[in-house]
Amino acid sequence: MTNMQRYALWCEKVTDAKLRQELKAMQDNPTAIDNAFYQDLAFGTAGLRGEIGAGTNCLNIYTIAKTTQGIADNMKKHGHKTVAISYDSRINSDVFSVKTAEVFAANGIKAYLSRECMPVPYLSFLTRALKADIGVMITASHNPAKYNGYKVYGPDGCQLTDARSGEMISYINQIDPFAVHTGKIEDYIKQGLIAYAPDEIEKQFLAVVKKQSCGNCESNIRIAYTPLNGAGYRLVPEIFKQIGVTDLHIVPEQAKPDGRFLTCSYPNPEKAEALKLGLELSEKVSADILIATDPDADRMGIAVKTQNGYRLMSGNETGVLLTDYLFSRRSALGTLPKNPVMVKTIVSTELAVRIAADYGAQTFNVLTGFKYIGEIIKGLEVQSQEDRFVFGFEESYGYLAGSHVRDKDAVVASMLIAEAAAYYKKQGITLADRIAQLYAQYGTYSHKLISKEFPGADGSAKMKKLLADLRAALPQNIGGVSITKSIDYLTQTEFNLPRADILSFNLADGCQLIIRPSGTEPLIKMYLTAAKTPAENQKAFARLESFINEVFT
């Protein structure tokens, strides 16, 4: 079926008034039709994600219903009977969560639905606490307001493995979205097929988060916090309160859930512009640290007060600080397990590995996507060794301490970074001072992420061709520096990892370049690493960037 045929079918079948208006608006715009219908949304490293709107390539009640019906059919094949559902603060997240629950209920699968928007880690915990067969989180994480998404979790609270998601996709692809019919949520509640999640599970979640504490914060730490109009707005301040934070200042314009993100067009704590209001509040109240969580409260970014203003910490730096704090404090407190484990993604800093090794830790390097960190925890759990897991992180601002959930957890990360700031403040230093001490001890690890965007149908085709061309003629050197090792994760057999569309280049000067397409956005991401002096690292980055700009134009 061509894109125009798909468009014509939707014009005929869609009954939702708003979507009908959107379809009518694109009738004289072939490019808009192509972008809306050139593909069905596919699961990537973080599930289903796309722009909100009409079309097979967008998030709407029909694509939500199609996806859910396919999952329901797959669940019935396995004899599964329960699902946990939650959602973040995004536009239509509540609507999509209700539609999801209704489709499951229409299939005789009991759905437990959160009463309000909640963080991703809560959904992971809820799935485990209810012993649900599947978990669904309606979220687009840190994307701009026009996006939404659909994450699927297994009964262990971890995002689906590649094999299971592939199985579900085969079912989803068979579904006609216009053939999915449901009743109303009110009727399913009366029938007992939909129920709201018990209130006590939230208390249980906060209790297990608090168990990861290495000591209560004292009143000497002043924190500025922004939930960026997202789902962290209640639980993060509550966990601060429970560990003894008394001097907390929340950005008022971003304090409540609002999927329009009116004060922050790109609510991603990785981006400095997202922290603008938070930094202004920090300056006003002279906060020791600014903590920001993204709309679904699984990622966390920080800025630290220094003599020269506030310094934004990268995801790698925050991962290093949390690694150092957790291992050193738990070692001092006598709570560090025997044979401790740390897990990180292959694109995250090796500095954390060196720090953890000083405490006898075993480190696992996994593919990008927190589900792979979750799989390591599950492997430990099967052996009744989950307590060995101390910390896992990815450079894209995702962190987890403890095995209570199997995804990034900005609630526990916010608690621990606040504790770390308070701990070092009592020693007369900041987190910026501490990272400088670690660089002095282990070497200056510099990292840079470059993203090239390829939007729409034409962009998707171009992105695939550029990667294929690079594979067909792998470089022997970059900027005159020879490549000592090239790894194609689609074909490599050296590491016990799934096949992945990733290329890695190690250079003779110690630098590294890793290239991968995003699983959720029309981007090619390049991860640059150098570990010499700051000046030498910048020169190395210039060589790598020149190569990137030459290849990906």
Let me know the largest β-sheet: 6 strands, mixed
Strand order of the largest sheet: 1-5-4-2-3-6
Mean pLDDT comes to: 94
Beta-strand percentage? 15-25%
CATH architecture of the largest domain: 3-Layer(aba) Sandwich
Q: Level of helix content? A: 25-40%
Shape: globular
Structure classification? alpha/beta
* CATH topology term of the largest domain: Alpha-D-Glucose-1,6-Bisphosphate, Chain A, domain 3
CATH class of the largest domain: Alpha Beta
The name of the CATH superfamily of the largest domain reads: Alpha-D-Glucose-1,6-Bisphosphate, subunit A, domain 3
How many β-strand runs?
21
Summed up, the domain count is 3
CA distance, first residue to last residue: 32 Å
Low-confidence stretches: none
Radius of gyration: 23 Å
Total number of helices? 18
